[in-house]
Amino acid sequence: MTDSISAERPYGSWPSSISAQALVEGVVALSGLSADGKRLYWLEGRPEEGGRTVLMTGNGRSAQTLTPAPCNVRSRVHEYGGGAFTVNDGDVFFVNFADQNLYRVNGAAESSAVDSVQQITHSGPEIRFADFTVDATRNRLLSVVERHHPDREPENCIGAVDLATGELTILAEGHDFYASPRLSPDGGRLAFVAWDHPNMPWDGTMLELAELTPTGELSQVHTIAGGAQESVQQPLWQTDDALLFISDANGFWNLYRFDSSGIYCVLEDGADYAGPAWVFDARSYLLADAEHAIVRRHGAGGDELVLVNTRTTLATPLTDAGGARLSFAAPTLLDGTLYYIASFRDRMPAIEQMPLSGGEPATVMAAGGPEINPQDLATGTPLTFPTRDGQEAHAYFYEPANSACTAPAGERPPLLVLSHGGPTSATTASLSLAIQYYTSRGWAVLDVNYRGSSGFGRAYRAALNGQWGILDVTDCEDAVRHLVRTGQIDGDRVAIRGGSAGGYTTLAALTTTHTFRAGASHYGIGDLTALARDTHKFESRYLHSLLGEEEASLVERSPINHLDAFNCPVIFFQGSDDKVVPPNQSQAMADALRAKGLPVAYLEFPGEGHGFRDAKNIIRTIESEYAFFCRVFGIEPADDLPELNIDNQDSLDPK
Length: 655
Known about the structure:
Blueprint: E1 7-8, E2 29-35, E3 40-46, E4 52-58, E5 63-65, E6 85-88, E7 91-95, E8 102-106, E9 117-119, E10 127-135, E11 140-147, E12 155-162, E13 168-172, E14 177-183, E15 189-195, E16 206-212, E17 218-226, E18 232-239, E19 242-247, E20 254-259, E21 262-265, E22 285-287, E23 292-299, E24 302-309, E25 315-317, E26 325-334, E27 337-344, E28 350-355, E29 362-366, E30 381-386, E31 392-398, E32 405-406, E33 415-419, H1 433-439, E34 444-449, H2 458-462, H3 471-485, E35 494-499, H4 501-512, E36 518-522, H5 528-534, H6 542-547, H7 551-556, E37 570-575, H8 583-596, E38 600-605, H9 615-633
Parallel strand pairs: 1-32, 33-34, 33-35, 35-36, 36-37, 37-38
Antiparallel strand pairs: 2-3, 3-4, 4-5, 6-7, 7-8, 8-9, 10-11, 11-12, 12-13, 14-15, 15-16, 16-17, 18-19, 19-20, 20-21, 22-23, 23-24, 24-25, 26-27, 27-28, 28-29, 30-31, 31-34
């Protein structure tokens, strides 16, 4: 799909072999890798099946689907879910998205027929489950439970489901949130994490320990670690008397051990061994044996896997940080072989295996996706740039890449700035087909880890507290200014895009700066007062740390209250079933800008929630966004793009 070898065309308009369809055709999202000593289990998110999440199993050589349509393995606890299945001796227990009930399937079954799936609970969708531990001695499943009510905030607790009857018994309640119920090997003690409003799990949590009575009730519940200023996560029993967990007590999420001698940090390290707990059961370490743990260490150059002796604190790298494998998730062991989900700079994620005895990693299951000519691949260059207040912030910069095209001499590329969600989240340099869609068309892309992002320690993460809508915006703007000073981009053609909290950063940037000439808000936040009133329980007090508790801050920082400052076109994308950022946020912003006479496009997708999963909606989103930016900047795209309805589009035409 090129005119000729190295044809000269303006930046931003290059023909590309990476179509919008290539972002979803044959592509699956890999997550939840686990093992039960005999087989591997994992989840595949399939855009071509309407975003259905499928439970898979395999032995490292072949793969089999365990949950046929219409089963969709996905929990709605906290709305973000995670921890939607667990395995035990060949049995797999999972949550079905449609009714939020628990089901069982035999992981060794030869058939994936619907009749092989057995329903365990028969409650309505107001009862939700996530994050499981099997209590085999008592034939029950321990779980985080979320109970919804029509007239008040949901209740969260730890519960036990009888696997014979489906009956639910509540074991622990009273805190606002719970996570990670983990049973000791002898079944005598239960560890779990709890926290209360207004904390988010990365602000402060408590690690609770309870004795279990012979009939399975909890007794002698007490806190052993954590607090309002310490984030604890991922408890894991090493023996009946020793418990490992992750804590940021020293400023970074490091590995700790609790036993009869007390609590100590296994290995003091100025790097994070975990990320923020947006979803349940996000495992970043595992036990190799009674003394050793394999830990994912996040450093400046990327992730590495490290073998740590929890008694002697000696550490041995198993992989190289910043090497070919950029990041790791869900490490697990099977027959002396380490398996993990790896992300790469130059290809799609994959499940890989690596013998602990030594040897090179091998791919077990790839996520699919198009084959990309290495000469057409843009890789993210780490960028640390100065901020206006004398600090530093971080980003990844992608230059345009297309072996079939060159730009006219002296021309600089347009820039798309990405502001990630969360805002307590982070971006990495892992291959993103959505980024490659732009860079292969002659755009530069800047993916910003503004202050407040995770992966750089607690101080960097907490820097955004009270400053949301300020520091994240100025960091994005300062990153652009840095690229303008170094002559790498066209400062007159800069667009910004963000989703969710990143959508808020995008809209805030368009009201407080003149750096950005167009914006795209994906289910973004325009009215903080409405968000505080309408959002779900998990994030209902999140604004207290990000903005403070003064009502005036909600009003002052809301983009919808600064429409007079808007002076550029915006396109909005929204799911109709979004419970995190309800559709009224995007609708109100689009209506207000439309009334002001600014060019506005609004696309709402029926049935989509917070983030789009259906292939056709993903395709429509990126094609519409690209068409919108091209229209704003006067770029003639090489693609045959669908018609886009832009209100007030006459104001885009030269006068």
